[in-house]
Amino acid sequence: MSARDIPLSRRSFLSTSAAAVAAGVLAPTLPAQAADFVTIVGGPTGGSFYPISVAVANAISTALPDTRVQVQQTGGSNLNVTLVMGGKAELGIALADVLSTAMRGADPKRFPKPMQGLRGIASIFPSHVHLMVRADSGIKSIEDLRGRIMNVGAPGGGSETNARAILAASGMSFEDLKRVDFLGAGDAGDAVRNRRIDGFFLSTGLGAPMVQELQTGVDMVAVPIPAELVKKIGDSAYVATEIPSGTYQVQGLPAPGVVVWTQLFCSESHPAEKVRSYLEAIFADLQKFRSGHAALREFSLERAVQGMPIPLHDGAKTFFAAHGVTAG
Questions:
Q1: Which of 30, 32, 114, 283 lies at a 20 to 30 A Cα distance from 2?
Q2: Are residues 122 and 137 in the same domain?
């Protein structure tokens, strides 16, 4: 079953009652009659989108006991935009470049018409594009990917979008590779171990579980993504950076790389008071929220307004203004 076929089931359901509210948490208030059900679309397991969606859900459920929250596993950014804007989910996680593309209607296949109702809630973390290969593949540069077998993540995910953009800036496309696989992180890890693929593109926060698991049994190399190549992509959502040494036990670090901010978003039609209350819930116990994933360790009020490629929701504007933070 592909990511496009995953139904919005309740198998990942998270809920809480008033008795479960943590002591001392200042819970934002909604009208007493509001008993809400919120679906958050995240990403595949093995990446960062899903556990971060769970962290958002836990914060909302703890602070807002009348709000029942479920987290849905999906293929990632592109699908999440479609689900939220199609009314199948209230909140979603997506990469900034995907949101920008959807807002402009710049993808003839996925987003042929501008989705001008997209609104940002918060920038959650910088998502690093991991381009890693087996050490015995002989691949040392992006140009060496010609004729090789690479995984680009689940269909509709940000990893696929990032891979296409990086290859295009290098004068290549998926057609220049021998084969492109669309495996989730778990299956991709197995494919690397069994030499069915040469490597992968994975857009996620630093400390990716998939890479951490692979590094204990497979010699891996981080392929550099040079800053001059990042400029050629021609999208301000892509920012040149590096994957620092010590992040993983792989060869080639530190490595030049690229980062795209990951955003929590919703539709413009979502009530402003609810959006404000979600942010109040997240920041009510910031340390607990940060403990939800390694990529959240530096999450803060100031960072939450960085790299936003779409307009902030009115509820988010109200929240940040009340805390003295101005969106860039």
A1: 114
A2: no
> In 203-236, which positions are buried (b, 16+ CB within 10 angstroms) versus exposed (e)?
bbbbebbbbeebeeebebbbbbbbeebbeebebe
Q: Does residue 64 contact residue 273 with C-beta atoms inside 8 Å?
A: no
Structural domain contains residue 327: no
How far from 90 is each of 79, 94, 107, 137, 316, CA to CA, in Å?
A: 13, 13, 23, 43, 15
The per-residue pLDDT for 294 is 85
Supply the range of the domain harboring residue 26: 3-126+262-322
pTM reported for the whole predicted model: 0.73
- Nearest CA-CA partner of 93 in 156, 136, 145, 135: 156
Mean pLDDT value across the chain: 88
Output the pLDDT for position 205.
Answer: 83
Q: What is the pLDDT of residues 282-300, one digit of tens each?
A: 999 999 999 999 889 999 9
User: 119 forms bridges with which residues in the sheet?
Assistant: 266
Predicted pLDDT of residue 28: 45
- What CATH number did the domain enclosing 166 receive? 3.40.190.10
- C-beta of residue 150 within 8 angstroms of C-beta of residue 174: no
The answer for residues whose C-beta is within 8 angstroms of residue 173's C-beta and 6 or more apart is 164, 167
Cβ–Cβ under 8 Å, residues 253 and 225: no
- 209-258 tens-digit pLDDT: 899 999 999 999 999 999 999 999 988 889 899 999 999 999 999 999 99
Q: Are residues 283 and 136 in the same domain?
A: no
CA 283/CA 262 separation, integer angstroms: 18
Q: How many CB atoms lie within 10 A of CB 122?
A: 26
Q: Which of 241, 260, 279 is the last residue of a domain?
A: 260
- Domain boundary (260, 282, 301) is at 260
Identity (one letter) of the amino acid at 273? E
Strands (E), 170-230: 179-181, 199-204, 220-222
